[in-house]
Amino acid sequence: KVTKFPTNSPSYTDTILTLHDLTELKQIRRMRADFVANASHEMKTPLASIIGLIETLQTSAKDDGAARAEFLHIMSEQADRMKRLISDLLSLSKIEADTSAPEGELKIPNILNEVKRHSKWHSEQKNVTVTLDISKNLPILRGDKEQITQVFVNLIQNAIKYGHKDSEVIVKAQVTRKLPVELSDKYDRAVQISVIDKSDGIPPEHIPRLTERFYRVDTARTRKLGGTGLGLAIVKHILSRHNSILKVESEVGVGSVFSVYIPFVDNTALLNPPKAEENSDDNLSDSIN
């Protein structure tokens, strides 16, 4: 934008040149368009399947009892898929719109035990054992309990879903001073909660994109297992609201480790001030099964 205006001298004018960098704005618009396109596609796929099966039931299969039962089962599965997708879209939209500071107490042992109980049916379907290894004297954190619970529901149920049958998922919670570089400049300690599975693992080229909306390592397998492609995007946005991050390590053919780092912020210290004798690594690393 160029603006000219006269100066005190009749023979000269001053010019102001204003530059606006639109790169970020264009990127946001492109991401929004991609999101709408992906969401529309994800909704259309099960809807098209349901409509096609209804049309078949109204015509050629209306007198075939076996076909009716099979088609109704498929329709029920596709309707459940749409329900999960709508629920995740609403959750993501709500999280993104909420700019307030998270409030409330976070008692990590209670949250993890609650998620383990809620995941019992999923783990029993694959004979997967969920083991909690929680350090003693974890600090009480401050945040949105409902959202942080959703983080661990997504991570633990993903570990069960993509893990091998008859395997074990270990959830380890401890205080650590070994922080990722994204946190180390601002904080010196964090609560680290790691979800460790035994699975096919994730190829390294996919790891940087895991938290993108609708990104899937194996699209067919994810859909077959009921994934919406939004679970880790929801995790990322919730953690961002809590000044926290997710780190992923994986080895193909062995398994994956999804680690959440929730740093010690000012309000954490106010909720649960550490005693002087508890500041050593030895006291912080005691754990129970």
Radius of gyration: 25 Å
Number of helices: 10
Indicate the structural class: alpha+beta
CATH superfamily of the largest domain: Histidine kinase-like ATPase, C-terminal domain
Give, in order, the helices and strands.
EEHHEHHEEHEHEHHEEHHE
The CATH C-level class name of the largest domain:
Alpha Beta
Low-confidence stretches: 267-289
- The coarse overall form would be globular
CATH structural architecture of the largest domain:
2-Layer Sandwich
Q: Work out the helicity level.
A: 40-55%
What would you note in describing this structure?
The protein is of the alpha+beta class and 289 residues long. It has 2 domains: 23-97, Signal transduction histidine kinase, dimerisation/phosphotransfer (DHp) domain (Helix Hairpins), CATH 1.10.287; 105-288, 2-Layer Sandwich (Heat Shock Protein 90). It has helices at 23-58, 65-97, 108-118, 120-125, 145-162, 181-184, 219-224, 231-241, 266-271, 281-284, and strands at residues 2-6, 13-17, 105-106, 129-135, 141-142, 168-176, 190-196, 245-251, 255-263, 287-288. The chain has a 6-stranded mixed sheet, covered by helices on one side. Helix 1 runs antiparallel to helix 2 (65-97), helix 3 (108-118) packs across helix 5 and helix 5 (145-162) packs antiparallel against helix 8. It is globular. Mean pLDDT is 79; it is low at 267-289.
